[in-house]
Structures
1.
Amino acid sequence: MKRSPHSSIQAFTLIELLIVIVCLGIMAALLLPALARPKRAAPGYQCRNNLKQVGIAFRVWALDNGDKYPMAVALTHVGTMELVDSGVVYTHFQVMSNELSTPKILVCPQDPVGIYASTFSATVSRGAPSAVPFTSNTNVSYFVGVDANQARPSMFLSGDANLALEGQLPRGGLQSFGPDNEVGWHEPRHSNRGNVSMADGSVVGQFDNTELRKALRGSGVTNRLAMPASP
């Protein structure tokens, strides 16, 4: 820098100013793309977030239906009680379409066979040829605890459906998980961990196999789970 003969204030020379501008330009080129890039949530986090929304939907639905979940309310009152023994899963979510808002949250990002539905409507209008209706268990990645109720908050309400029972790979339909049964997570989802929403609507994220078995014993009862098909 040069010092002016008439002032004690230091000033930049033209070359120094150009160097500063070039440096700032390089820093901007390096930083701006990273700042502009959208942040992607980890798949495990997204799955937990899905189940949080599912738990809230169950609770909100129950508030309008005598504090009962759909599985304990008759079809004539827009519940799914008569469908419990069929083992079908998607219908329990379908009756909560207003509370869930979108069926997309019912598929885990790490589910290799789940098909995202874009609308709860069973029919798709001609103006929306790319829309996928929510019409089967293929649009669901999560089980439903058909006997779950708020009076027993430690029962399983919903969760990742890749549950193996007594060493057998997960299968669709209604399955009973007793307190003493051997259960574990089946790959490929979440690397031998999984998420469970409890009957009080709370979500316990990323159980490992030991924690899962402890939670099942802690429920103190047999949990009947309606399971979508899962690899």
2.
Amino acid sequence: MSPAKPACAACGRVLGRVAFQADAEHPADWHCVWCAVKAPRLQRTASRTMLVVGTLLAGINHGSQYLQGHVPVRVWAETGLTYLVPYGVSMWSGLAARRVRHASAPRES
């Protein structure tokens, strides 16, 4: 018999070569990428980063247009992307910090 393959603690999906640690409070829990992205702590951190950094970047890039009161639709679209970039970077770095190469490998101390 082959040993049981490790599964995601949240959804039960069989884990591949890469898994993600749930959090420091539950170090034995492993998650698939889809469940790791939905982690509340990771979402909160990414949202806060998005609000702070996105607002700074939007002010730097489009502040004069906002102050003049004339903001074309194109600028609103660019502003939306300006907020999405820091969210994505924060999410990516959070996942990278929780990444474990082999789900069945023992953790290093």
